[in-house]
Amino acid sequence: MLKLFISLLGLFLFFLINLINAAEVKNFYLNATYVNVNLDGKYERQAIGCNDTYPWPTLEANKGDRIQLWLTNGLNDTNTTLHFHGIWQNHTNQMDGGDMISNCPIPPGGTFIYNFTLEQSGLYWYHSHTAGQFADGFRAPFVIHDKNTTSGEDEFPYEYDEEVILTISDWYHQDNVELTKDFLDLYNPTGAEPIPESLLINEGMNLTWKVEPNKTYLVRLVNTGAFVSQIFFIEDHQLEVVEVDGVYVEKNITDHIYVTSAQRYSFLLHTKNSTDKNFAIMQLCDQDMLDVPGNLNTNETSYLIYNEDADLPTEAYIYDWEDFLDDYYLSPLSGSELLEDPDYQIVVEVTMNNLNDGKNYAFFNNLTYVAPKVPTLMTLLSAGELATDAAIYGSNTNTFVLQHNEVIELVLNNADAGKHPFHMHGHHFQLVQRGPDYTDETDPVPYDEENADEFRDVPLSRDTVFVRPNSYIVLRFKADNPGVWIFHCHIEWHMIQGLSLILVEAPLQVQKDEGQQLTENHISICEAAGVLPSGNAAANTEDFFDLTNENVQVKDLPSGFTGRGIVALVFSCIAGILGIIVLGIYGLLPINEKKVIEDFGVESIELDETSSNDVQPNTKSSTSL
Ligand SMILES: *[C@@H]1O[C@H](CO)[C@@H](O)[C@H](O)[C@H]1NC(C)=O
Ligand SMILES: *[C@@H]1O[C@H](CO)[C@@H](O)[C@H](O)[C@H]1NC(C)=O
Ligand SMILES: *[C@@H]1O[C@H](CO)[C@@H](O)[C@H](O)[C@H]1NC(C)=O
Ligand SMILES: *[C@@H]1O[C@H](CO)[C@@H](O)[C@H](O)[C@H]1NC(C)=O
Ligand SMILES: *[C@@H]1O[C@H](CO)[C@@H](O)[C@H](O)[C@H]1NC(C)=O
Ligand SMILES: *[C@@H]1O[C@H](CO)[C@@H](O)[C@H](O)[C@H]1NC(C)=O
Ligand SMILES: *[C@@H]1O[C@H](CO)[C@@H](O)[C@H](O)[C@H]1NC(C)=O
Ligand SMILES: *[C@@H]1O[C@H](CO)[C@@H](O)[C@H](O)[C@H]1NC(C)=O
Ligand SMILES: *[C@@H]1O[C@H](CO)[C@@H](O)[C@H](O)[C@H]1NC(C)=O
Ligand SMILES: *[C@@H]1O[C@H](CO)[C@@H](O)[C@H](O)[C@H]1NC(C)=O
Ligand SMILES: *[C@@H]1O[C@H](CO)[C@@H](O)[C@H](O)[C@H]1NC(C)=O
Ligand SMILES: *[C@@H]1O[C@H](CO)[C@@H](O)[C@H](O)[C@H]1NC(C)=O
Ligand SMILES: [Cu+2]
């Protein structure tokens, strides 16, 4: 008996030691710097690179490893932060990188130490979470391999010979500061998103991927773009999807996949046995997302090369691009069942509208997110028992307080005619329902619990999911990761328009957790940035319910004053000042304004005289996300 016990203990220790041996500390020293690049061969511009080079390195680690990453802000004119997309950050909320959410902005010259362990495996990515910086190139994949133990557990669940990482993205010729200025502008009252100039693959174009015949490749694909979703396919080859957003799934074979900004799909590719022909790797932009015409080539061809002596392939076509793999029907290998009925249901409605400054904003339940003066995590940590009261986090942050271990259901009704890829930090959520495209209905169709489709017993979990136009999604997750987590649209432009809400999860557990206390490095970064690491949303450390001088959104438009009125006002002002007729200017205006005129029909616009004095920004609004 004792012998058995000792040998079992020995076996246990053996595995324990193996496990400890397997986990390593991985150190990275990265410096965000401006670099000049010409990624699409059409235009040289300044981008945000790493250590004076581009692109950023792909980070690789094993499940269980500790990451220590020293990020220096080598950009002389802007703050920055770094987010590890899809990583839960259990007990290390302050390492999640959300600017003014869980992270003080890192000022120029500052170095922030990101320090956390990995509980997950699969494909992730890392990117700046400040303003629109990831559109400027501050982005790269993050691969977490499964532990290599002899126990047979924690191994990649499918056989393959070789692994390949592909990033797809969109690329602009202007930088995020210029783009944001023109986008969030009185002259763009419809909120038409800037159109990228190019679609990239592995941060370039015309990729040549040399394959060997009769092999199985694991292709890890991530869309690191700021805006458009892309269809991806390889001519005459099937894609066997095995992982989405770090979640292993039952194999699903498809011809093409639809990848929104921030989503990941890993698939197995079996190469052919013959080498007489080469094939096209195709990227097609989802053109439904483009409000205005631009200079974008909406599809790009790259090359799957079996034979360097054979001809390069020409572009390939698919019969019906809408017939892509529907992630709603994927099944996680874990077999994790649908979470039970929710303890707490959050219902939000997405709209886009103009405020008094004539700019177009995005709203959850009529509130557009405006960053607080103190990062929400720091408010939580300094509020004592008041941390459970949503009021202290500000009236313009869309904050919801969640109780520890509750099952949360988030119902998102999209009253907007666009598709949006929503991302939640700190969690993978179950995709419980997703409504069809209701573009053809007169009004948006909200979720109707009574008449919902039957739920799947084992629904897919992931961290980024799209909602269809005028339709809804229903998500569930367990509040088992105390911290402050943002839920937002991953289209950078929509996030800049305020399409974010904040989940303050089990605040008292966060306070009690030794590991969640701010590091000295973090406190010094806050000081250097001039951000108070304590106090309510208005930076009041005395009275947490006194929100005087908090950041709030600009006022609503006066009733009866619409986008149409703004357009009229803008154009009659221009006409007045220049003393020429509107039509004369038409030809000189950049594309967005032209589109606006077309959308609203200039001839039929009447000037709303009474409101003309109201079109002024009247409060400070921050877009420092
Ligand atoms: C960046 O530079 C630092 C300091 O010179 C160096 O330690 C680090 O390895 C470099 N990182 C990359 C990815 O080149
Ligand atoms: C890609 O190939 C096309 C067609 O051959 C060429 O016009 C273009 O300049 C290439 N782009 C880059 C970035 O090499
Ligand atoms: C980071 O890059 C900036 C700009 O190139 C440079 O001034 C600074 O010395 C670099 N810092 C480190 C730690 O490498
Ligand atoms: C910041 O750095 C860029 C690129 O290195 C340089 O062109 C610019 O003049 C600098 N700006 C300031 C304010 O120092
Ligand atoms: C960095 O953030 C702080 C706090 O919001 C702000 O005061 C400062 O102007 C920012 N710095 C830059 C260079 O944008
Ligand atoms: C990272 O965190 C661990 C655990 O708290 C700590 O032991 C270690 O010193 C930290 N590393 C750095 C570079 O601060
Ligand atoms: C796993 O460990 C074995 C033995 O050390 C090694 O041969 C193999 O290459 C490792 N596999 C991976 C994927 O690292
Ligand atoms: C393909 O590979 C398998 C296993 O490696 C081998 O048995 C088979 O003969 C190969 N087939 C061809 C046509 O090369
Ligand atoms: C290549 O040949 C092997 C056996 O020789 C077969 O199992 C495999 O399906 C073939 N691959 C393709 C893509 O036809
Ligand atoms: C690619 O774009 C061109 C130009 O818009 C179009 O003529 C062609 O049909 C497109 N190809 C595919 C595969 O969609
Ligand atoms: C694969 O996806 C399709 C939807 O695109 C679904 O109908 C089918 O059930 C899925 N099969 C598996 C095995 O996941
Ligand atoms: C970490 O958080 C995730 C996300 O909610 C959760 O699934 C997981 O169980 C947590 N792990 C620990 C050790 O708390
Ligand atoms: Cu969106």
UniProtKB/TrEMBL annotation:
Cellular compartments annotated: Cell membrane
Topology class, membrane: Single-pass membrane protein
Cofactor(s) essential for the protein: Cu cation
KW Phosphoprotein (keyword) present: no
Membrane-spanning ranges: 566-589
Plastocyanin-like domain sequence ranges: 32-148, 162-306, 369-507
InterPro entries named among the record's database cross-references: Cu-oxidase-like_N, Cu-oxidase_2nd, Cu-oxidase_C, Cu-oxidase_fam, Cu_oxidase_CS, Cu_oxidase_Cu_BS, Cupredoxin, CuRO_2_Fet3-like
Primary location recorded for the protein, binned into one broad class: membrane
SUPFAM superfamilies with a match to the protein in the record: Cupredoxins
Keywords on record: Cell membrane, Copper, Glycoprotein, Ion transport, Iron, Iron transport, Membrane, Metal-binding, Oxidoreductase, Repeat, Signal, Transmembrane, Transmembrane helix, Transport
The organism's place on the tree of life at top rank: Eukaryota
GO cellular component: high-affinity iron permease complex
GO biological process: arsenate ion transmembrane transport; cellular response to iron ion starvation; intracellular copper ion homeostasis; reductive iron assimilation; response to copper ion
Family: Belongs to the multicopper oxidase family.
Protein name from the UniProt record: Putative iron transport multicopper oxidase
